Amino acid sequence: xxxxxxxSEGSNYTAINIxxxxxxxxxxLTHPKTGxxxxxxxxxxxxTKATGTEISFTTLPPQTELSYFHFHNKDEExxxxxxxxxxxxxxxxxxPIAEGSVIRxxxxxxxxxxxxxxxxxxxxxxxxxxxxxxxxxxxxGKRIETTAKWIGL
Length: 153
Hints:
Blueprint: E1 5-10, E2 13-17, E3 28-30, E4 37-39, E5 41-43, H1 45-48, E6 54-60, E7 64-65, E8 75-83, E9 85-90, E10 93-98, E11 102-105, E12 111-115, E13 121-129
Antiparallel strand pairs: 1-2, 3-4, 5-6, 6-13, 7-12, 8-11, 8-13, 9-10, 9-12
């Protein structure tokens, strides 16, 4: 099975590579609660040493569905569909999704999805504690002058 590759690391960052998205199906993990092997999924919190989010990439084969519905106690999730099409269900609402769809779900929302297309569905899921974002975008940043190291490479 494919492994996450560390590209570089310093005191303020960790850079990794999960590989080509078309080869995402080659990643595999063991679900910590069920012990079930899950193919085509890679979590990024541990390899990137993230402290505020869990991000995962998942591939769902053509004409299949996620094998379970779930909810969270404290974390909201944002799903970004990169490839494929199908349906997403939150509670009793079911709606079509496709490449470019973005779905944010509150912790208590019971969620699941299916891929009705003839290509693998690839999506990113970003999970973070609900109401934890105090400052965002330019409110949380400060521009500085520095020299770009890629110049001349």
